[in-house]
Design goal:
Four copies of one chain form a homotetramer.
Chain A (H helix, E strand, L loop, with lengths): L1 E5 L4 H12 L3 E7 L2 E4 L5 E4 L6 H11 L3 E3 L6 H10 L4 E4 L5 H16 L5 E8 L9 H7 L7 E6 L6 E7 L3 E9 L3 H14 L5 E3 L1 H7 L1
Parallel strand pairs in A: 1-2, 1-4, 4-5, 5-6, 6-11, 7-8
Antiparallel strand pairs in A: 2-3, 7-9, 9-10
Helix pairs in contact in A: 1-6, 2-3
Chain lengths: 216, 216, 216, 216
């Protein structure tokens, strides 16, 4: 597969590059603050950069008319609306987290929300490496979105932690929690590769990583 | 409600006594190694003792013909068969854990077993107070029973911990876990009270605590 | 010992009452929003109430001239200064946490602060029952005070959790953490009893619980 | 630095190779089950292999007369005695864990052992990747060795976990624990590099990683 990466010099950009190379895929386009590199037209475009880069990525996607994966976190509602607009022209994946485990945590959260008594307290928490700029993490926001009300969320920044997420439910007698821990960024790169293989076969439309996992 | 307790002087016996008294129920029968106390015929019999007391409890249950709740852990398969036999004559609840959270942990475990890739490793672990004699706990055994294969299980005994249980699933990229922590034994006594109210209205049959939670 | 409690109807007030009764001590004075109860002059006064009650407690302590233990959390610097003033007249204990384990966590934190490389990140976190009004907890503040700089601190409120505290140190390669979990409020009541026995033998002065643990 | 590795194809062998290359050091000798590679005489020999390879490593070390680092786990007492013998001829480092955090956990364990009441329960636990063959881990054994009595230890094997260790102390009222989590094997490789730089400047003698950390 010929692919392009917006944000190639970031942590996730590098992780994607390593894994895709290992699997025989070819980087033919990249963009970062140092400039553009273009060797060929990519079959898929992957954005792991910053929210302020969105306009640039939208332009590239429209110009090249290639399926695009948005993995950047911290987008505003307005920006998310623009990504949805794009998906009417080309196939788009937008997700805050590309791990299987997180998708299972989300499904489990939905089940517990429906089955636990309503008076239980809920707490969401996440820990990430010191380089992560947004807080709470996009994934923590996705977990909170399962609920119709606001859920108290705490964030820690610690060393080089790849990403921990936790949801806790507590009554006067007991605490039940579901916890996820990414062992390395590679697990996310694998989810991106899975998404890339899926999206290059679609026509148009907006897909989440959960759609990809459960549709395949 | 008039009730009786086998193992009244144990930790759970005392916890049940406190809660039932608070809720206006009346202890009319008890049995412990110090002997028998009988004031009246109970409407329900509750056993939180030791496996070696089973024969005595079976005798009492048959003699009085009252619904019986077995909360003791560590029974052998043969002993469990005897309890099942009893349930053909009178209504019986047999469960290793009387908390809502543990039932949710079990349901979640079933979901994850069905949806995670089969090559993920699984570990079950439990921690209880230093006075707990059996290991692994009955609840840990119930969690392991969700699977068709043997699951590695570890047990810790620490101070006065009311009861922690955890199941972890791990791949090369991530770890997902579900954890339960009982904050006090009172949470179990509440499950026993719920079970007592349920069982005195049944004819015959063998019920788990899960049956009671999801049938009510 | 004849003792008095300010805040007798609170969670800690009740816990202290239960333990002290069990150990043969006699409640002869109490104060709560419902009013005052006085049977005799106490040998020691114990305050587990709210910061706004401080003036009342100071008045009682001065009037009766009895050793006083302040276990209330959420005091302002100005209020702490008033407690220090009082200690020039009578013996005073002021502490945010009356458990041995927390004192060990504090000592350990000091050791790690002195021995870990300075570029490690630090996070403090605490979880308490839904009824706790101040955040972060007084104990979390005490842990943070070990450092010369501000430490990021997160707070959760969950069911009936008696009190969890954690300090984490993280580098690019590893995370080291020290965690404390109170199994019940009784452990704090035991620390208060230890403090009461100590303080009734002192002349004047301001003592922390750490002083009591390591001086005895 | 010119260095050699016994067990070059193992997980730690590869990690060491990557880091040392990045830092400008040169692999001039290696040995693995596929055979020997020799380009030049190394200044230091590093063994991360299996206990059954010890005799081969001892031979190489004696023949080349170079400082040697033993990071392999699972050695018997008899094998450890042979390593000590070797250290009378050449400088030797033998350690089960090359992370700063673990050394701090050990120091903290010693402090808590000396200062907590003797009737507290103690539990040690560790989790490692599914490929780790020995259990409990060498590090867990080192933690247990702090005590004069046997400490109950539990081991889990889960996905690709780089290495978690925990020691818990519990009384009837509270639980205090110290936890370490390696974020990647690179943290150990960094400890090995630190040790290599240290040992090439020594004459003879047996050093632990703790010696190196606190002597430097």
């Amino acid at each position: 597969m010929k692919y392009g990466v917006i944000g190639i010099n970031g942590r996730m950009g590098q992780e994607i590059y390593e894994l895709f190379k290992e699997k025989g895929h070819q980087l033919v386009f990249s963009y970062d603050k140092d400039g553009e590199y273009k060797e060929d037209k990519p079959e898929v475009l992957i954005d792991f950069s910053l929210p302020e880069v969105l306009e640039t990525t939208l332009e590239y996607a429209r110009e090249m008319q290639v399926p695009t994966i948005f993995g950047t976190t911290g987008y505003s509602d307005q920006q998310l609306a623009k990504i949805e607009d794009l998906s009417k022209q080309i196939p788009v994946v937008q997700a805050y987290n590309f791990s299987i485990g997180i998708q299972m945590l989300l499904k489990t959260t939905e089940f517990l929300k429906d089955n636990l008594p309503e008076d239980w307290d809920i707490e969401i928490s996440e820990t990430h490496h010191r380089f992560k700029k947004d807080r709470p993490s996009g994934t923590a926001i996705t977990i909170a979105d399962v609920f119709d009300r606001e859920i108290h969320t705490t964030s820690k920044r610690l060393g080089n932690v790849a990403g921990d997420h936790s949801i806790e439910f507590g009554s006067l007698g007991e605490v039940l929690s579901v916890n996820h821990r990414a062992l390395s960024r590679r697990t996310f790169a694998e989810g991106v590769l899975k998404s890339a293989k899926f999206i290059i076969q679609q026509k148009t439309g907006l897909y989440s990583f959960q759609d990809i996992l459960f549709q395949e």
